[in-house]
Design a protein that fits this description.
By secondary structure, the chain is mainly α. The chain has one domain. It has 17 helices and no strands. Helix 2 packs antiparallel against helix 14. The longest helix is centred in the first third of the chain and has 55 residues.
Length: 494
Amino acid sequence: MAETDYDVSHMETLDRDLGRISNLELATAYVARPFVGYGVALLFVVAAGLLAALFFGQTTSSFIVIVAAVFGAYMALNIGANDVANNMGPAVGANALTMGGAIAIAAVFESAGALIAGGDVVGTIAKGIIAPESMGSASTFVWAMMAALLASAFWVNLATWVGAPVSTTHSVVGGVMGAGIAAAGFAAVSWGTMGAIAASWVISPVLGGVIAAGFLWFIKSNIVYVDDKIAAARRWVPVLVGIMAGAFASYIALKGIKQLIKIDLLASLAIGAVLGVAVWLAMIPVIRRQSEGLENRNRSLKVLFGIPLIVSAALLSFAHGANDVANAVGPLAAIVQALGTGDFTHAVAIPYWVMVIGAVGISVGLFLFGPKLIRMVGSQITKLNPMRAYCVALSAAITVILASWLGLPVSSTHIAVGGVFGVGFFREWDYERRLRKARGALPARPEHAAEERRRRKLVRRSHFMTIVAAWIITVPAAAVLSALLFIGIVTMAG
């Protein structure tokens, strides 16, 4: 009996020891995981420097180009970690995509957007914010671009580390402006361009919110609030998918294949209309098959919006890649041209290897560091389901595509968050409207009404204030940091 008790006690001790070892292994893996990510990121940054050395050649300026490429790769990683979360967060928060699926879709379409349609916005970032001729020399211009690139990358990295949803576009614009002022005074800044960019920062979240609220109103009015929800969904969901397909086709025709064939705006819209109608007709039997056997209730509608939400997320990723690759490689492209040709006053010719650094860096940053902020955007601002997330993603895609077409470096963060707030505020308004209609002329108890309104605040006001504060501080913070870095670089170079 004593031996049996000893054996049992010994086995329990062994189990506890093995449990401690297992917990230690899990803890070690948890601690080591971030370091693996940092190691992979470091390898990518080094690879970007080697790529620059390979393509730029052995010249007296090659070291500067290598350093600039490293800074550009560093910035691209931070864009992937921060901005892409705004694109994929709604789909993940609505449980329409797994985290792995979202990362895979974003990586493919972000890279495609950057490589196919990213050129025009790069020109705006590199040449539209400051007047290059005011710099006086190519070396001064190069130092200013270096300071802007490093300052914006560092600021976005810091903000991502603390979980602040700042705009990478704001960071780059602030960095370029700060370095330009430090290099040549306030006259170096193109204040007209800055005014247009600043206006787009205000317009883009408002427009994104209005478009998202408009689509949600349409869905509720024509699908959710009708008696036969399934029949209404069969009628309208294919139309909504066709709208997305048409917008995507128009953008590709107008911007993506312009190096092969020139297509004007009217022709691109015609192409989009034709493909949109084709997709609409093709989706009719698909949605009909999906809807077979579904109950006539709102929960069933979420299933039917899975495909539109995934398509809209892919579209938004493409548009974001086209628009925000400029943040990573715009200053780098300007540096490469200034050092390679000595010309820093004319349009920037963007080397393909520079675009590759931006495109791949965004995808790598998303894969390594994106999940945390994807979860935050998808679930902590307001509650999303597939229908609401679809409205956010589609409105953001349309707004970003329009901005990229116009060459305006708008913030995808502003657009996406504006869309989320637009959906949430519309739901609050719609709930109050329906509640008043249901009550009719009956007076409500004040305490009950106040408590109900508090409970039904569907947008978290604390997040709204935090986000606005982050938006306000980013431009001056990046500008000051960039100016200080420029002074330091010039001092060391001199």
